Amino acid sequence: MRSSGDLPDALAPAEPAPATLRPLPDVVLDLVPHGGAPVPRDVALTLLRRQLGRIQSRVQEAFEAHALSGLTAARMLGELTDGLIFAIHAYTLAQVGPVQPASPQAGAPDGAAEPPFVLAATGGYGRGVLGPYSDIDLLFLSDRPMGARGRRAVEFMLYLLWDLGLKVGHATRSIHECLEDARADATIQTALLDARFLAGDPAVFTRFDEAFTEARQRWGIGQFLSAKRAERTSRHKRYGDSPYLVEPHLKEGRGGLRDVQTMYWLARYAFGVKRMPELVGPESPGGGLLTAREARAFRRAWDFLWTVRFHLHYVTGRAEERLTFDLQPVVGARMGYTRHGKQDGVERFMKHLFLTARDVVRLSRLLEPAIERATLGPPAVSRSADPALTRAGLAIADGKLLIMPDLAVDRDPGVMLRLVQASRDRGLELHPLAHRALIRSAPFAVGMRGDARANEIFLNLLEGRDSARWMRVLNEVGFLSRFIPHWARIVGLMQFDTYHVFTVEEHTIEAIQVLNELERGELAEAIPVASELIGQLHSHRALYVAMLLHDIAKGRGGDHSELGAGVAQEICPRLGLTPEETETVSWLVLNHLLVSQTAFKRDIDDPKTILDIAEVVQSPERLRLLLVLTVADMRAVGPKVWNGWKATLLRELYWRVAEVLAGGLSVPERDVRVARAKQAAASMLEGQPKEWVEHFLGLGYPGYWLSFDPESHARHAGMIREAEERGAPLSVSTRVLEARAVTEVTVYCSDHPGLFSRIAGALAVAGATIVDARIHTMTNGMALDTFWVQDAQAGNIGGAFQAPHKLAKLSVLIEQALSGRLNLVQEIRKVRREPARLRAVQVPGRVVIDNFASNTHTVIELNGRDRPGLLHDVTGAISAQGLQIASAHITTYGVRAVDVFYVKDVFGLKIENERKLASLRAALLAALTPPPPDEEALPG
User: Fold this and answer.
1) What pLDDT digit, counting tens, does each position of 70-108 carry?
2) Which of 19, 271, 388, 835 is the most buried if burial means most Cβ atoms within 10 Å?
3) For residues 393 and 402, what is the distance between their CA atoms, to the nearest angstrom?
4) Which residue ranges does the record assign to the HD domain (predicted)?
5) Residue-level pLDDT at 839
């Protein structure tokens, strides 16, 4: 057997095992006593299980005591597993009998003797590294196809391994079969690259190794490289094409362990090297493809990822590779990450992980093209026929753009920006060697800060065609962090919530991508207003710079909008923006949440809401900028954040504020507006009996008439008339609004305290989530409550609640809830609970009571952990305080619920008594606190 120092580890030298780790007993002596017969199989199985337990506990104890890093633990586990496999191999031969070597005499019949076989490790086990729950991949290798005794030995070994509970991948092949199978299958080639001798006749393995090396030279690296690239593309598409997903797949995602292994496989295939340091220095294969610093970066990444993986396996007790929200704080704490300044320990841990993934992406872009060129020959670099390219220091190879090989980037760092600009303008792809040059030259961007020509090109790239693509390139190669120092602070920065899908800098680039799509007209159907407005903007450059900087101050504590506005004041002049542009960018960063927070948290039918935002915005141009910025920001958060309902609210808010800024009469005196609404409703009811129309027009208080359009008033009139004619105590009407991605539920019944709470509870039981509500008591004592709901089921989050059977059930549940025949508390508990991975995200309850946001109502804003029945609980608490809810505005950010209620007391007045406010705040905080779990959370 090989020693651990001989293991073909791809990236790092072995660390010595701690002195406290005494050698494990040699189980072979117990299985096959010296000079005696092997023990019975059941006895052997007991001894092997005991040995396997010793191996696993020994490594786990040492790792969790921080005596081993992840990579050292993986090597140690691999080495100890070697001993176990060697013991099983020896016991197998003692049971089955040794396989005699074939007769060397020429012409000996095939059945005269069995060919010798070798037991080899492949896959990760072949590389000498194992995770706590990794598969053990074995190759039973022989010169010729095995005979009956050899096949019995293989079967005996495999059943023994399976009975031990090990996951075993295995193949039985002759040398010729290995080569034939591998020739057309890169997966088999990869497995054989990792092959390592364990036991048996070493001469057989040597013959295989030599034959496989010769075959690789004959096949060439081109086919292997193409296959690995295709495999990587498919893998990234499945597990995450961004290294900055907030729940990353540690093994298969971009920047994960598999990407590091791919670089090792390519180097191993091309040069036969077993460690990355072998590629350092002019005498190394390829002439020095890596610097010593880059080789150390590979080692650090490899070790860190293995450490995270070991913790992940031990925490979950299985081969879990996705680092979900519930596991992140646990793993981060085990690795020693604690709160530092304004940043939680889990956020510090995840930033380290994302920076490691970024390093893996960069190192892959560095090494892969270098291996390709070293094996296939240098590219045929030609000076372009375009003299402008030549003057810019650029050339073309393989039809792709790169920096002239003889140009010293340290003396002319501007060539980096000229390269990217030329690639965009001429529609030429960047050569892989260009990416390699950009990564190695990125530190020179520091010297370009404040350079007028560099600023001009950068801003041209930022606001030009497909700018998100070029910002992503500049970010990935490390240019942006050097050119804009504040950018480095948000790279890899995550927010520990379920709302944001990407890290901060990746979200920013995604938002720029949405701006690009708006300009190309690709979102004209989904977002017509923003698509039209972006073409009307005069401050185009300011918009793109504001988007680049809108989250630049996140992670610093305090209001990131206010802090970011200050950062913008510093950065914009340095980038060459005019004072007017600087002011616009700073204002946009300061107010980039104004429109969304107003639309989703305030009653936009309240005149004061519109006047307040108009006073802040003041300019039609700024309003246009703010709407476009808001839309792009929201769509970039994640695929489930944007929906038709939010689009409708933003659009309505925009037009109302725009009309005020244009000097229109969208906020005339209340009585005038009510009179106009009644007049419009009457015209919609033309043809109805005059007495009935007059009766209906007298039913609504002013707030009712100002809350709906004439078409809705007409529908309500029909609903009320039918209810009165039938003497129905309850009427429920549903209407699917596909354009808004919501379903409108209207309930007409006798008003009584707690009505909103009961209806909200029934909707929760039905599987509907409320996104907005209007509550109105009519002059006849009846309530006309309207709810806009979406489907809460996982497969249709953000969509209308529209399945016929669900709508029918919803109406029944409302009737049962209002009649008291439905135990809401009990039924809500039965609602499917959220996955365990989401329960780790904590949202402390917060109550804000505002008597200034509205002239007529007290506005209550609640922040808390969303859960089924939350609205039922908080509205019940509001009703228990003797308050009347006029409207509700429900917004969910991941697992954070932000619910806003406009309320009055029983006399129709604001709540201003301090004792009453204190009592209300305490009751709402209690309602926000989730009840103790009475059942296990669903698995993530």
Assistant:
1) 999 999 999 999 999 999 999 998 888 765 554 444 444
2) 271
3) 9
4) 504-626
5) 63
Query: Hey, what amino acid is at 35?
Result: G
Q: How far, in Å, CA of 324 to CA of 866, rounded?
A: 19
pLDDT bracket for residue 36 (50, 70, 90) = confident
CB-based burial label for 94 (10 Å; 0-12, 13-18, 19+): middle
List, for residues 636-663, the tens digit of each pLDDT value: 886 566 777 778 788 888 988 888 876 6
Distance CA 468, CA 465 (A): 9
CA torsion, ordered 814, 817, 819, 822, to nearest 10 deg = 130
- Give me the residue label for tokens 């769509």: 635
Q: CATH topology of 25-97+115-219 equal to that of 729-833?
A: no
- Rg (Cα) of the chain, in Å, rounded? 34
Residue 129 has pLDDT above 60, yes or no: yes
pLDDT at 632 over 90: yes
Under a CB-based contact definition with an 8 Å cutoff, are residues 858 and 910 in contact?
yes
The CATH number of the domain covering residues in 25-97+115-219: 3.30.460.10
Mean pLDDT over residues 194-221, rounded? Answer: 94
Q: Which CATH architecture has domain 836-930?
A: 2-Layer Sandwich (3.30)
605 close to 707: Cβ distance less than 8 angstroms:
yes
Helix (H) or strand (E) segment spanning residue 742: strand 742-750
Class of residue 571 by CB neighbours under 10 A (exposed 0-12, middle 13-18, buried 19+): buried
Residue 849, φ and ψ in degrees, nearest 5: -110, 120
- Report the chain's mean pLDDT, rounded to a whole number: 87
What are the two backbone dihedrals, phi and then psi, of residue 211, each rounded to the nearest 5 degrees?
-65, -40
Residue with tokens 């080495």: 79
The residues spanned by each domain of the chain are 25-97+115-219, 227-376, 729-833, 836-930
Sign for the CA dihedral angle at 616, 620, 626, 630 comes to positive
Region of 281 (left: φ > 0; alpha: ψ -120 to 50; beta: rest) is left
- Helix, strand, or coil (residue 906): coil
- Helices then strands, each counted (H, E), the chain: 38, 14
Q: Of 763, 656, 664, which is closest to residue 706 (Cα–Cα)?
A: 656
Q: How far is CA 104 from the centre of its chain?
A: 61
DSSP 667: S
Which pair of structure tokens corresponds to residue 358? 């970024």
> Which tokens sit at 805?
């059977």
pLDDT of residue 939: 38
Q: Which CATH superfamily is domain 729-833 in?
A: ACT domain (3.30.70.260)
**With contact defined as beta carbons under 8 Å apart, do 591 and 561 qualify?**
yes
Cα 179 → chain centroid: 41
**In this structure, CATH architecture of domain 227-376:** Up-down Bundle (1.20)
Encoding tokens for residue 338?
């604690």
